[in-house]
Amino acid sequence: MNRLIKRLMLYLLLLVSFCVVANDAYIEKNELIQSLESRNIDIIVQALNDIKSMRYSGDILPLIKDLWEGKEEKWPDVPFDVVEKPIIKIELADILLQARSNGLIEINVDQYQNYLRNILSSKDLKVVANAVLILSGIEDKDDIPLILNVAKKNNQVTFRAAILALSTMCIPEADIALRKYESSLSDLDLKKYVNDTRIKMGEFKKNTNMCDW
Known about the structure:
The protein has 213 residues and is mostly helical. Helices cover 67% and strands 0% of the residues. The chain has 12 helices and no strands. The protein has helices at 3-14, 29-38, 41-53, 61-69, 80-83, 86-101, 109-119, 125-136, 144-151, 156-168, 172-184, 188-208. Helix 8 (125-136) runs parallel beside helix 10 (156-168). The longest helix is centred in the last third of the chain and has 21 residues, at 188-208. It starts with a helix and ends in a 5-residue tail after the last helix. Mean pLDDT is 88; it is low at 11-23.
């Protein structure tokens, strides 16, 4: 399944303010640069989300990659201090990882994965919630305990994001870890959320053959 569709479904299920909805917007390079020059985080994030929803984003990917790699000499008008903010950086990572999954670009996943892992310690709940969802798409069993640690931080936003992230992973180790965590919970509301999410996503994955792609 196209990784964009998967992410959109995840965000709809999460039902939080950072939900991304697909549209017919098309973002040109100069439009993205203008959004960055505005230094307005909401405007920039919206532009990056529009890129994710574009039917074809190949033309803008070289710029996205340059932004991620911090190539200031190629884009002197871009405020790279804004680009380096985690809320922006993880969106760049998401676009590039999505493009890789769709066969549009070749990248070394390790650097993105390491960045996402490190960002899980951020105090910005939106950043952490987005990071676990993006990280789960890499499908690495070594990320499972890291995502579980986020679930255990006693915060509703990051808890729900982490449980959803684990529930959508296709590797069997994620389901095993989630069941074990569910059985360890004494709070009945938390236990119910884990169980409901795991079952719903299990049915979704089965009905859409999501894990066969």
